[in-house]
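Take a look at this chain, tokens included, and explain the fold to me:
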Amino acid sequence: MNILVAVSKIHDGNMLNREDTFDRDVIANRSSFLAKNGIDINQTTKVYVVYEGDNYRRYCEVSEQQNGSGMTSENSTPSDALVTRSLNHALFLPIADCVGAVIFDSTKQVLMVSHLGRHSLEQNGAYESIKFLTDNYGCNPAELLIWLSPAPGPDVYPMFAFNNRSIKSVVFQQLRTAGIVDKNITDNSADTSKDAEYYSHSEFLKGNRTEDGRYAVVAMMKS
């Protein structure tokens, strides 16, 4: 079994239109990006992040029954992370200025894609993601492999609840507290506020980017 992790860039196109779930251009962009990585859009489920309520630790397991959910059809259940135990089932997360974390247990054959944004991290979201896997699947944190997406730096996206530290540094701290070993973390250190290959919603709002959009993280356990 192999693990596939891929991150889109601006040249792959916008991966989310919050105003139109069925934006044809977005669906075409997703299909093309996934196909480039050997994934069919109809074997993929999107993490459905909703900014409402006071719970940002909503973790759900999905299987082939949810194939296409959020990709070509409506998502049904809000989630901050998705888990699958199914081979060849991809998990897809559009990202603005947050961190996308891919968490993989090769022994238990468990894959999680977690959305770690300001709301989630203020509720210890990175730690809680690991705890969810430990409590529900018997995962050993020291054996988990982690991939982290790019993120903006503290000068443009300070985490006010964490003494204005960078979002990535908060993620690292919470993962370490959960028992994750540094050597098992693969970090994409690109700063999305400075790297023109990635979208940055915060930079768009400041007038520093002419185009708003979302890039995406996708992961899949391959047979």
Q: What stands out?
A: The mean pLDDT is 95.
